[in-house]
Amino acid sequence: MDRFHLMAVYVAVAEEESFAGGARRLKMSPPAVTRAIAALEHRLGVKLLNRTTRFVRATDAGARYLEHARRIIAEADEADNAAAGVNAEPRGQLTVTAPVLFGRMFVMPSIVEYLRRYPDMALSAVFLDRIVNLLEEGMDAGVRIGELPDSTMKAIGVGHVRRVVCASPDYLRAHGVPRVPADLARHIVVSASAVSPSVEWRFVAGKKTVGVKVSPRLTVTGNDAAIQAALQGFGVTRLLSYQVAAHLVSGQLRAVLGEYEPRRLPIHVLHREGRQASAKVRTFVDLLVERLRADKALNWNEGAKG
To answer: Worst-scoring range by mean pLDDT, 44-53, 57-66, 246-255, 271-280?
Structure first.
């Protein structure tokens, strides 16, 4: 069988984690897919997939082969597009990911603009408040807030955000302004678990990191809910600066304990293709990076500290 065909069959089965799923995706019969995988494993002399009655998963060798196979297929698609003279017009499917509120506020405008520019593209947006492994979960690009571990992903810095403790002016007039982190013990605390999953908030005093245990009266799973509670004057909450930037500018919320804030968190756009990124990935990433770098809310250092 053709080596490129075998490679494409393997990618489909590995990504679907199913022989039947790979067959449906490629519009092939399941026996033909099974024969193709057997032929590929025989050609390579290694086992690529672990098969059970419940799932199909790539072996360690299979995972490495999958990464290379994806890149080779993408490069082949790029070559076809270039030969056909359509390299400037991306076509196909993209899947991107970002944190929920960040995705809605900052990534979605770029997605809409991208799809308007390139009518032959379709895009799936997966917004989740957890770390997404782009390779394992089949994402083409994503946004990550926070320090990055060592990774084979291509990472492009686009800005920074801060952890901000804030409350409404009405609340602060009624309850006083916390001057040091320990003052939070006498305040009503709203905890957004997506940002502050523990009951200990960490601050920086000089060169030392200080942990302050708080006892939330209200714990919510979404940042939107924490913002609404703070806007209604219920208590003090801690969020990322981009989430409350507009409310701080308008005066609806006021930041406190600014001199104790931990260091800023970097924001990166990630993608799992290197210098030979396909046109569809490259054009999307370029657009997203340009827009995020231009957004003041993501590079905002002054004027928000109380």
So the answer is: 271-280
CATH number for the 3-84 domain, one of 2.60.120.10, 1.10.10.10, 3.60.9.10, 3.40.30.10? Answer: 1.10.10.10
User: What number is the average pLDDT over the span 86-113?
Assistant: 87
Given a contact cutoff of 8 angstroms between Cβ atoms, the answer to whether 96 and 126 are in contact is: yes
Tell which CATH classification among 3.90.105.10, 3.40.190.10, 3.10.20.340, 3.40.50.1860 matches the domain 92-159+265-296. Answer: 3.40.190.10
Report the distance separating Cα 14 and Cα 57, nearest Å. 7
CA-nearest of 89, 126, 103, 98 to 279 is 89
Residue-wise pLDDT for 31-53, tens only, equals 999 999 999 999 999 999 998 87
Q: How far from 59 is each of 63, 172, 272, CA to CA, in Å?
A: 6, 57, 20
- pTM confidence score: 0.64
For 163-260, CATH number? 3.40.190.10
Q: Where would I find the H helices in 118-168? A: none
